[in-house]
Design a protein that fits this description.
The chain is of the alpha+beta class. The chain is 41% helix and 11% strand. Strands 2-3-7-6 form a four-stranded antiparallel β-sheet, with no helix packed on it. Strands 1-4-5 form a three-stranded mixed β-sheet. The radius of gyration is 22 Å and the shape is globular. The relative contact order is 0.13. The structure holds flavin-adenine dinucleotide. The site of flavin-adenine dinucleotide has 19 residues, from strand 1 and helix 12.
Length: 456
């Protein structure tokens, strides 16, 4: 069993071009900011973006290969996070060229980190029911409201803010989408601690904060269309494993985390540092990449668990083997679906609902990875390490450097089937928009938002 991916002819040429570019440009003595500027402006940080938005208009399946290749060749990957995954493609699709040159440039070069200010205490699955208000004040808007589950809000320079700009029209029609400065008075970010021990997401309280009219993406009251672009990118990106921290590095974008001035060779995964990219003719060995945190462990898929099963001596267990084969098959199905989308898009078509199918499939993979990981880990899977001292103690007690990551992955596994829209919501969308089933009965498409019943 292998997880190697097959390269089509066009893809092989593209990866050849990338290897040559890395050979000429990767230099571990640059700062992180200098490296990301080279990578981003050359179109390799976000090659899926259009060519007028610092991209190469590449298919998503190829973007994942590019990210893997950058890491495998020893260079720092693109600036990970929601800026690259969500804000950049949304601004590229709905923003003006001026906005693209301003915001997307700062994203692909890692200068600014973004968060997603969509969900509210009363508006998750029913996102269009959001109540955060933005009221015009000359060339600016004044914003008041509360967001929740804001991943990375404590490290973000900017947020993709959805706010209600007209409550007197039906709910989907009175929402606007802003590029919102997080580092200003009136924005209070409060981290929420998860059972993993980390604080990935936050509550964000917004009180009389300001946002310029020039930061409106897609026009007044047209935010729902832009929000859908963000959500489709989130679902497709999560489903394909793209847009992540691929590239084997530890650096995070933006002004808050403090990585931009560091020497880039010091923040690549140690085994890769030192310019392995200079040996650009070497065949990459993706199988040797090791998982880092919970998310990368979940994305490590069958290869990571096969290694673990071998090291634990349970690779001969028939049940474990069967589930490993199932996990591998789900991964391959995802890859083939990515290739199908690429082929159809190259003919000018599309496959409706694929981002939703991809996200549902990712949920299945995550759950199976959690259950299989814990089964392989055995009793050690009940132990969790909350800090570096705990991790060292756990490693010492079990003799297994992966013991902590398996439980962390299992504890985190509840999250991916929720964020970006729950499994139930994906099924509703597929039912209504792809299969043509009737919508749930509701009058909220015609009733002004101000007249709809609300919980709070
Ligand atoms: C780890 C994590 C990170 C997140 N990061 C962000 C972020 O950065 N930014 C952001 O804006 N949001 C973020 N979210 C929020 C996420 O998008 C919401 O949690 C999600 O959309 C569900 O909304 P909710 O939590 O309000 O649940 P609800 O909408 O209250 O749903 C509760 C339950 O009811 C079900 N349900 C609801 N409506 C229907 C329906 N019509 N048909 C069938 N079932 C239904 C749901 O499937 C769910 O099981 C994050 C969430 C998590 C878990």
């Amino acid at each position: 069993m292998t997880t190697e991916t097959t390269e089509t002819t066009g893809t092989a040429e593209l990866l050849g071009e990338l290897r040559a570019w890395l050979g000429d440009n990767w230099d571990p003595d640059l700062t992180v900011a200098e490296w990301w500027e080279r990578l981003g402006l050359a179109g390799w940080a976000a090659p899926g973006l259009p060519t007028n938005a610092y991209g190469k208009a590449m298919a998503r399946s190829d973007v994942v290969l590019v990210q893997q290749e950058i890491g495998a060749l020893g260079a720092l990957g693109p600036p990970a996070g929601l800026g690259l995954l969500l804000a950049a493609p949304t601004i590229a699709a709905h923003g003006t060229q001026e906005q693209i040159d301003h915001y997307v440039r700062d994203i692909v070069t890692g200068q600014k980190a973004w968060c997603q200010l969509f969900s509210e205490p009363q508006a998750g699955s029913d996102l269009a029911g959001l109540q955060t208000r933005a009221v015009r004040d000359g060339d600016e808007w004044i914003v008041n409201g509360q967001k929740v589950w804001t991943s990375g809000g404590q490290y973000a320079d900017l947020g993709m803010l959805l706010a209600r700009t007209d409550p007197e029209v039906p709910k989907h029609q009175g929402i606007s989408y802003f590029a919102f400065e997080m580092l200003q008075e009136g924005v209070d970010v409060r981290p929420l601690k998860e059972m993993t021990g980390h604080a990935l997401f936050n509550e964000v309280f917004i009180t009389d904060a300001r946002v310029a009219d020039s930061a409106l993406i897609g026009g007044v009251n047209n935010g729902w269309a832009a929000a859908n672009t963000t959500l489709m990118n989130e679902r497709a990106g999560l489903g394909s494993g793209g847009g992540s921290a691929a590239g084997g590095g530890l650096a995070q974008p933006g002004t808050v985390m403090g990585f931009l001035g560091k020497r880039v060779g010091d923040v690549v995964a140690p085994a890769a540092a030192g310019g392995a990219a200079k040996k650009s003719d070497e065949k990459s060995d993706r199988k040797t990449q090791q998982p880092g945190g919970a998310l990368s462990a979940l994305r490590g898929g069958a290869a990571m668990l096969i290694g673990l099963a071998r090291s634990r001596g349970v690779n001969t267990d028939a049940g474990v083997r069967q589930d490993l084969a199932r996990l591998y098959t789900l991964g391959e199905l995802g890859r083939f679906n990515g290739l199908r989308v690429k082929a159809v898009k190259e003919q000018g078509g599309d496959i409706p609902g694929m981002p939703n199918v991809a996200k549902l499939s990712m949920s299945q993979i995550v759950r199976l990875t959690r259950d299989l990981g814990l089964r392989i880990a055995g009793p050690a899977g009940m132990l969790h390490a909350y800090d570096s001292d705990d991790k060292a103690a756990l490693k010492h007690a079990t003799g297994d450097p992966f013991a902590g990551s398996i439980t962390e992955m299992a504890l985190f596994a509840q999250a991916p089937p929720i964020y970006g829209g729950t499994d139930q919501v994906q099924r509703n969308i597929i039912g209504e928009r792809v299969l043509g089933l009737p919508k749930e009965p509701s009058n909220d498409r015609v009733t002004p938002f101000s007249q709809l019943p609300k919980n709070a």
